Amino acid sequence: MHTKLERIRELDARAVRYSVELVGQAASTDLDRPTPCAGWTLADLLGHMTAQHRGFGKAAAGDGGDRTHWAIAPLGTDPAATYRESADALIAAFAEVAGEEVEFDLPEFGVDRGFPAVEAIGFHFIDYLVHGWDVARALGVPFEPEADLVTAGLPIALAVPDTDHRLRPGAAFAPSLDGWDRTRALDRILLYLGRSPRWPATTG
Asked: Going by C-beta distance under 8 Å and a sequence separation of 6 or more, which residues neighbour residue 129?
């Protein structure tokens, strides 16, 4: 039987690898496309996703408190390859986490405490499940994660507080949208985390 750490690590790795598949479909001409993340192009989104992989990887190794590890850097001439390298490094870093008692420093979360490994990797998992959808919508390609990723992601998404902190600049998620409690699991995740499943037909 998997431990909680093994389970969330495995879910996260699969979500990240799926995001790599989606990013790999982007051409250089796609980088200026808008995304469901308000004000961000696909290039902006990939810069953020790559930086977060690097920051979480350093946090897994005990050095997340250094904010320079979270800084967005140029993606270079092959953004998809840069993203894939950061994803591979992140998966490897999470695989080295020794146990559930390991704490991650996540300064971008705005709290002065560490997060237990299962919780921290859960944050990363739901973020990349949703960011995979962001990439797919920006590219206009299907988003078809394995069903158990969505099932596992729903309670993690619903545990994110829906408070005024979501209105702050740089907040990970926008306030929830109406109807999040009356639809299928993937749409519930998206709506609760402030994204319209019908984007770009509506704002979200």
From this structure: 15, 145, 149, 150, 153, 189
52, 94 contact by CB (below 8 A): no
The answer, yes or no, to whether residue 1 has pLDDT greater than 80, is no
CA distance 1 to 114: 27
What is the spatial distance between Cα 118 and Cα 99, in angstroms, rounded to a whole number?
A: 9
pLDDT in tens, 110-140: 767 899 999 999 999 999 999 999 999 999 9
**Domains along the chain with CATH numbers:** 4-149 (1.20.120.450)
The residue type found at 62 is G
Half-sphere exposure of 39 (CA within 13 A, CB side): 4
